[in-house]
Amino acid sequence: MKRIKGDLSDFGILLTPAPRVQVLCYIPRLNFSAEVDFMIDTGASGTCLNGGHALGLQRYMRKETLYYSSGIGGQCGYYKETALLIFTDTTGQPLDYELELGIQCIRWFLWRRPSLLTLRTPCLLGHDVLSEWELRYNHQKEDITLIAP
Amino acid sequence: MATELLEKALESVGGLAEFKRKRDQFRRDLAFIDQNSDNLLKYYNKNWIAVYNERVVAHGKHYKKVLSQLERHDLPVEQIPIRFLSAHKVPALYPKR
Description:
By secondary structure, chain A is mainly beta.
């Protein structure tokens, strides 16, 4: 079994620090890769790029992949892209996970001046990944471990 | 054994050694933000900051201006954490837009 360590972060804005994990996100169709810190969110059904990470990708997105997701914050559109998430295990080796990644849809008329709320939303690692892996989370000890089978 | 897609992904960042180097750097830059948040807030409250090599290399009220600063200085935007800092913290649930 491979283990991935996370940590806690307030993402600059959160009252209570949340668990996060660092990932290289690769979208093969665009040959695009970026380092992303994902908030680990067991309440999110899908893993998604939000905010600034999504903004730069808008012009490459395909309308036919757009779907809508509902949550406490309301409804939000996401484009679907096949992507590879690359974690680093505790031995320093890369560990990859292929998935259908959601990329937040930011309407074209907001591209130039997106709202602060849109931009500062963290990227989410959802239970499409988490349900396949084991998550150990001890907030007090700041022990966040993902265990891949 | 690495999959073909993993090999392509690693190639896109310059290979395995470069992936590890960039990953370490990104982690250090994220840690710099978290560990120095009180100090950073004194100067950059309600501002976006970009941190590279454990230094604030761009900042501003608007995200796009920070991006422009990074591009002007030819810095690798995809490997640089850009964070909005606010002394006013919010719960994790997001209000309706």
